[in-house]
Amino acid sequence: MINRKRNILFLIFTLFLLALAIGKEVARIESLVLVTKATEFTAGTPIKLEFTAKSNSEKPQLFIIHSYGKTLLEASVDRGNYVFELPENYCEKTGKVSWFLILEHESIASGTLQILPNPKTKTVLENYFGPRKIMAGGREFSMMVVVPTDGFDNPKESNTTVKLKYQFLQNISTLDLRTNNFIAWYNIYSPDKAGKILVSTECENTVSKEIETEVYPNIATDFSINYSRNHEFADGNQLTRFSTSIIRDQFGNVVSDGTLVYFIIRTKENMLLKTFGATINGIASAQILHPDHQDSYQVKAYVMGIAESNSITINYKPVAASFDYALSHNNRTLRVGPIKSFMNQLVPDGITVVLNVLQKNKIVATLEKETSKGIAFFEISDDILAAGNFQLEIKTLGISKKTPILRNDHQQ
């Protein structure tokens, strides 16, 4: 019975002590009451949090969580209250700020406050526009992104009106955009015609400078080709010039300067030749040397992987029906020519003459010379020939001649 009474008394005493401790804690917390009622502040203005101050064993501290970071503020005393002033750079940045009041190393109160953009400062516009080069036809676009900010570089509040203007040729369009998640944006699709799109924005009496994007012609469509030349003879000297029609895209725009056009040439012997040119004002031109023998060219042009032309045939006539040659110095010196061209004039210097030396119907040596004043000279050394019969085969300008069977009595 006595033990039971002791237990009851001990329990009552414990509860008394607990109630006393709780009362002291409540009194300690209630001794620091937030005086500042505002929870929203304008960027750039001082932000202070004031708490009533009664008897405390030590000064409280304020722990701040801000987008710039975390910091612990010390209190100043003003008219008997504790005042915490946020750093200036914290006051200029919009967003949510969380605070925790610390007393004797414990958090005894907490809250949040909101910093809003400053409408009294001059609005600043940040514009992002791109890509700056798009192709005509309405499939590609440039995106205009606008970020209106206050004087402290804080984005304006949502639903802020931004006026967008853009011009192409004779048309000027105006749109009212609304910011959402700090930005306003709009896609400007390319028109069918090539040219420049000029864009500007405006927000709260602040206007941007002009920005532009270039609308380039779309890819080339099929085209035609033609050729010109001084004459139709295969003299290996003159040039044949190829040219295209004006190359356009499907919307009628002249393709961009510098578009490469390849001219592929197939000869009578099924050899492939190639030349190319870049467009200027939609026309590409190229040239190729005349063959040095009778031939027929099949020519077709391509903008590789995109467009092609019609096929044309170019025929080249031989410049000479025959030529003379003469042997001397025991058949070791051969003079070919003078070779004459289609008007009985001497062929241009540099015409290739090929000499094949044959023994037993097999070519044992091949020599090449170029004409000078219509003549080519060959010296056949004894090192080339073995003792016995040999024959010379002369080729130039698509004409071939063989000498009679000659005798070589000298053995190397």
Number of distinct beta strands: 33
Which range does the strand content fall in?
A: over 45%
Shape call: elongated
Largest sheet: 6 strands, mixed
Task: Determine the oligomeric state from the structure.
Answer: single chain
Distance between the termini: 148 Å
Unreliably modeled segments: 19-29
Could you characterize the architecture of this molecule?
The radius of gyration is 48 Å and the shape is elongated. It contains two helices and 33 strands. The chain has helices at residues 2-30, 88-91, and strands spanning 40-42, 48-51, 61-66, 69-74, 76-78, 81-85, 95-103, 106-116, 124-130, 133-135, 141-149, 161-168, 171-178, 184-189, 195-203, 206-207, 211-216, 225-229, 233-234, 239-244, 260-266, 272-278, 285-289, 295-303, 307-318, 325-328, 333-336, 352-359, 362-370, 376-379, 388-396, 399-402, 406-408. The strands form eight sheets. Strands 10, 12, 13, 15, 16 and 17 form a six-stranded mixed beta sheet that branches. The chain is mainly β.
